[in-house]
Amino acid sequence: MHKILVSSCLLGQPVRYDGQSKGLTSDILTRWLQEKRVVAFCPEVAGGLSTPRSPAEINVAKVITSTGEDVTIEFQLGAEKALALCKAQQIKFALLKESSPSCGRNNIYDGSHNGVKVPGMGLTAEQLVKAGVQVFSEEQLPELVSALAIADNN
Ligand code: SF4
């Protein structure tokens, strides 16, 4: 059975920038947890950032907080650690929080800190996709279920 890397905040862990979580209520996620195939991970915490922290957005090639701090290195470190974890545990699937500058799969904020979303990926999602991990957001659970069903049967 394939393991799944899951954003810690989707599992109810209070690791978001605001000290809150974004717990996902889902029967299938509950089942995956019971099957012990879920690996929780927060790239921003792993990259050395504290919680709570200032919200950050990707601005061209950098990640900048709402107070103007450059946290690109911490975000890159979190992405590298996520990839290392996937390689170490042979994780080929990920369920990541949409719109996050680390975990966003299909869209992110545009860097203006004005709440505007644009198509794009967070640093961790992008690194994992490039390495061949199949990454899905919480808005794509059915697609992840289908991909896992195919993989588990092979
Ligand atoms: Fe959640 Fe990812 Fe943000 Fe951590 S970095 S709080 S796991 S969205």
Largest sheet: 4 strands, parallel
Low-confidence stretches: none
Strand order of the largest sheet: 2-1-5-8
List the ions, cofactors and other small molecules found in this model: iron/sulfur cluster
How confident overall, as mean pLDDT?
A: 97
Give the number of helices. Answer: 5
From the N-terminal CA to the C-terminal CA, the straight-line distance is 10 Å
How large a portion of the residues is in β-strands, by DSSP E? 15-25%
Radius of gyration: 15 Å
What percentage of residues falls in helices of 4 or more residues?
Answer: 25-40%
Backbone shape: globular
- Computed structural class: alpha/beta
Order of helices and strands: EHEHEEHEEEHEH
Q: Tell me the number of strands.
A: 8
Explain what this protein looks like in three dimensions:
By secondary structure, this protein is α/β, with parallel strands linked by helices. Helices cover 32% and strands 19% of the residues. The chain contains five helices and eight strands; from the N terminus they run E-H-E-H-E-E-H-E-E-E-H-E-H. It has helices spanning 27-34, 43-46, 72-88, 123-130, 141-152, and strands spanning 4-7, 38-41, 56-59, 62-65, 93-96, 107-109, 117-119, 134-137. The strands form three sheets. Strands 2-1-5-8 form a four-stranded parallel β-sheet, with helices on both faces. A two-stranded antiparallel ribbon has the order 3-4. Strands 6-7 form a two-stranded antiparallel ribbon. Helix 3 runs parallel beside helix 4 (123-130). The longest helix has 17 residues, at 72-88. The model has no long low-confidence stretch (mean pLDDT 97). It binds iron/sulfur cluster.
